[in-house]
């Protein structure tokens, strides 16, 4: 496990000046010509011991899309890996038999509406006669019952037709949200039962990192804490969400969940790493991240000493925002470090500010 230190910035002072340098001065000496650079001051700050933990990137939201009605697959409308929008048709089930049932239900419903209109008119007419004592009460009740029967039948037939129309709508299985098709699971000609999965989809606009960590790290992680993460060599910002409340009995580790900002090219299953605090903060030195470069596999920064570049091998202890905590022989607060132009200079080269 690699331990480093992340520091909290106390103060950083950056200054740039550009004194005039004559052509004659540039020609003096046989070494490399002066290089125009920008510098910043070494400062002090607080540091937390940090460790890198490796986990896996996952889509934050996935779904196994299921059929709500049974049917024969007529067409699969998408391919694996295809980007989709919410409501995009994924699979179409055959609906010929259902269409015929709907036509019959519509006919029954329309006939009932005609019968109900006639029953209402008949009852209105009979009611007038009944009020004038022109007909018997039993005849009046017969018409009243007839109207009531047609009204109830109207409700039943309407519900049946609505159910069939809804079932017809469900014959087209659609995407539940924006995302990407992970895998289609049916082919034309297959029979799909109610609840049968037809496709796996994922929301690829947001990712999570799951990392197994020891129990002694959990006190140092509070909800909403920002940490540094890397997925497929891409540096990302991550936010701690929660500890899954169930540990691995064999390893005595617990799964920590982090939300990650979206970056193009991320895929579930990629290796991910996060830098996590392991104990309380201590004091250390801070320089801007741009001050530290890698030369021949070693971390190096350049001090500006009386206008001359001086290479100092350093050990990176941790990160805090745009600052990096380092230690190196002879490095102390107040010195000037090169933060721009350091990729092109060499030890002992004259500098221009």
What Rg, in angstroms, do the CA atoms define? 37 Å
With helices defined by DSSP (H or I, 4 residues minimum), what is the helix count? 3
Please state roughly what percent of the residues sit in beta strands, choosing from under 5%, 5-15%, 15-25%, 25-35%, 35-45% or over 45%. Answer: 35-45%
Give the low-pLDDT segments: 1-27
Q: What topology, given as strand order, has the largest sheet?
A: 5-12-15-14-13-16
Please name the CATH architecture of the largest domain: Beta Barrel
List the helices and strands and how they pair.
Blueprint: E1 3-9, E2 14-15, H1 23-27, E3 35-36, E4 38-41, E5 43-66, E6 71-76, E7 83-84, E8 89-93, H2 96-131, H3 137-170, E9 172-174, E10 179-184, E11 191-192, E12 197-214, E13 226-231, E14 234-243, E15 253-260, E16 271-277, E17 282-288, E18 293-295, E19 298-305, E20 308-313, E21 315-320, E22 323-327, E23 336-340, E24 351-352
Parallel strand pairs: 3-24
Antiparallel strand pairs: 1-5, 2-4, 4-23, 5-12, 5-16, 5-17, 6-8, 6-11, 7-10, 8-9, 10-12, 12-15, 13-14, 13-16, 14-15, 17-22, 18-19, 19-20, 21-22
Helix pairs in contact: 2-3
Give a quick precis of the structure.
It is built from 3 helices and 24 strands.
């Amino acid at each position: 496990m690699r331990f480093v230190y992340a520091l909290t910035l106390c103060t950083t002072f950056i200054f740039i000046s550009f004194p005039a340098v004559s052509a004659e001065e540039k020609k003096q000496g046989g070494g490399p010509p002066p290089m125009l650079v920008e510098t910043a001051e070494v400062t002090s700050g607080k540091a937390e011991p940090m460790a890198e933990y490796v986990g896996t990137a996952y889509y934050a939201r996935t779904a196994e899309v299921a059929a709500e009605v049974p049917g024969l697959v007529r067409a699969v409308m998408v391919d694996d890996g295809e980007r989709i929008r919410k409501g995009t048709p994924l699979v179409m089930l055959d609906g010929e038999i259902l269409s015929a049932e709907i036509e019959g239900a519509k006919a029954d419903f329309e006939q009932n509406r005609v019968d109900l209109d006639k029953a209402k008119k008949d009852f209105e007419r009979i009611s007038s006669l009944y009020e004038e004592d022109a007909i018997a009460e039993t005849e009046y009740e017969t018409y009243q019952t007839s109207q009531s029967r047609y009204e109830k039948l109207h409700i039943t037939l309407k519900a049946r037709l609505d159910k069939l129309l809804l079932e017809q709508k469900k014959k087209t299985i659609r995407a539940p949200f924006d995302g990407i098709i992970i895998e289609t699971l049916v082919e034309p000609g297959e029979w799909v039962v109610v609840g049968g999965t037809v496709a796996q989809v994922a929301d690829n606009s947001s990712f999570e990192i799951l990392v197994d960590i020891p129990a002694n790290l959990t006190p140092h992680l509070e909800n909403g804490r920002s940490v540094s993460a890397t997925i497929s060599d891409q540096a990302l910002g991550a936010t701690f969400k929660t500890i899954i409340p169930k540990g691995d009995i064999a390893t005595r580790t617990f799964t920590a969940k982090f939300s990650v900002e979206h970056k193009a090219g991320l895929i579930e299953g990629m290796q991910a790493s996060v830098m996590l605090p392991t104990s309380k903060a201590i004091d250390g030195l801070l320089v801007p991240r741009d001050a530290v470069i890698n030369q021949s596999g070693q971390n190096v920064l350049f001090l500006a000493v009386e206008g001359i570049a001086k290479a100092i091998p350093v050990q990176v202890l941790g990160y805090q925002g745009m600052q990096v905590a380092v230690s190196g022989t002879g490095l102390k607060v107040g010195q000037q470090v090169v933060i721009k132009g350091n990729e092109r200079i060499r030890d002992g080269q004259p500098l221009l500010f």
